[in-house]
């Protein structure tokens, strides 16, 4: 090969290498920008809920199997906001009806970097059962909500990446990919639609450990409390793999009831009313 041809080949190789490096650098910069934007959106969602103190909710859980058969449960939930960098909020869920689940109580302490602490009181056997950290992807009392869905969705439990903006009903939403960072999550990722007017989570797609779409949560009938805090009064979870559905319909949500930390302990589970 002549020296002139060698020089030409070498020059072309340098051009190709430089172009590839530039493209790679651009892609990395775009990726970093999407991560920063997704994180910023999630941080705004989280910031808007600071300072709520505590809540007490009354709701109806409607279960529907793939054949359309339905059953209904009545329940209450108490939530206590816990400020801090390594702990999350606490919640207590109590079932009132029907008779076969009456008195069942579920206590959850959200954590940031460690597995959540969760316990269930079963009145039929009169004992408190700890929920294993490896079992939090399992269904909560036969519903399409998993144990981990009922724990507080703390900001630092996920990494975030903005995907796109698009209409969601009459609103404009930012679509953000959320990847769990904690061990034993039942999901590889969640795709969340945040409306850009109030940063409420309008819809969440959950993907299972194989990366396939598992279920979708659609939230609606939002109401504002204390001129600041938004809560959905209708939460509809549809399992695309089984055809089962669960709907939570809230009749009342009250804020700042004076809930004490002493009311949300493992020792009080057996005595809840």
Give a structural overview:
The chain has one helix at 3-47; strands spanning 54-64, 70-80, 87-97, 105-111, 117-122, 127-130, 158-168, 171-180, 189-195, 201-207, 213-225, 229-239, 245-255. By secondary structure, it is an alpha+beta fold. A 13-stranded antiparallel beta sheet has the order 6-5-4-3-2-1-13-12-11-10-9-8-7, covered by helices on one side. The longest helix is centred in the N-terminal third of the chain and has 45 residues, at 3-47. Residues 2-6 have low confidence and may be disordered.
Give a quick account of the main beta sheet: strands, pairing sense, barrel closure: 13 strands, antiparallel
Helical coverage, percent range: 10-25%
Distance between the termini: 90 Å
Structure summary, number of beta strands: 13
Compute the average pLDDT: 88
Shape: globular
Distinct helical segment count: 1
Cross-sheet strand order for the largest sheet: 6-5-4-3-2-1-13-12-11-10-9-8-7
Low-confidence stretches: 2-6
Strand content: 35-45%
List the helices and strands in order: HEEEEEEEEEEEEE
Radius of gyration: 23 Å
Structural class: alpha+beta
């Amino acid at each position: 090969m002549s020296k002139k041809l060698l020089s030409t080949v070498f020059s072309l190789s340098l051009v190709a290498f430089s172009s590839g490096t530039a493209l790679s650098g651009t892609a990395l910069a775009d990726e970093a920008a999407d991560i920063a934007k997704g994180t910023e959106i999630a941080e705004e969602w989280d910031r808007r809920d600071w300072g709520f103190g505590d809540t007490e909710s009354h709701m109806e859980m409607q279960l529907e199997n793939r054949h359309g058969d339905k059953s209904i449960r009545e329940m209450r939930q108490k939530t206590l906001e816990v400020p801090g960098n390594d702990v999350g909020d606490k919640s207590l869920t109590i079932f009132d009806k029907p008779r076969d689940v009456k008195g069942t109580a579920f206590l959850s302490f959200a954590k940031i970097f460690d597995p959540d602490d969760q316990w269930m009181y079963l009145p039929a056997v009169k004992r408190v059962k700890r929920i294993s950290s490896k079992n939090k992807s399992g269904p909560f009392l036969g519903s399409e909500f998993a144990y981990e869905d009922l724990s507080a969705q703390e900001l630092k439990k996920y990494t975030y990446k903005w995907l796109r903006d698009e209409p969601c009903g009459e609103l404009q939403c930012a679509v953000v990919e959320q990847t769990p960072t904690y061990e034993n999550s039942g999901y590889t990722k969640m795709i969340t639609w945040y409306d850009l007017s109030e940063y409420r989570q309008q819809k969440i797609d959950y993907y299972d450990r194989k990366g396939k779409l598992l279920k979708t949560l659609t939230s609606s009938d939002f109401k504002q409390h204390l001129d600041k805090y938004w809560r959905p009064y209708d939460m509809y979870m549809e399992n695309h793999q089984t055809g089962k559905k669960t709907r939570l319909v809230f009749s009342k949500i009250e804020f700042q009831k004076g809930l004490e930390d002493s009311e949300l302990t493992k020792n009080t589970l057996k005595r809840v009313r």
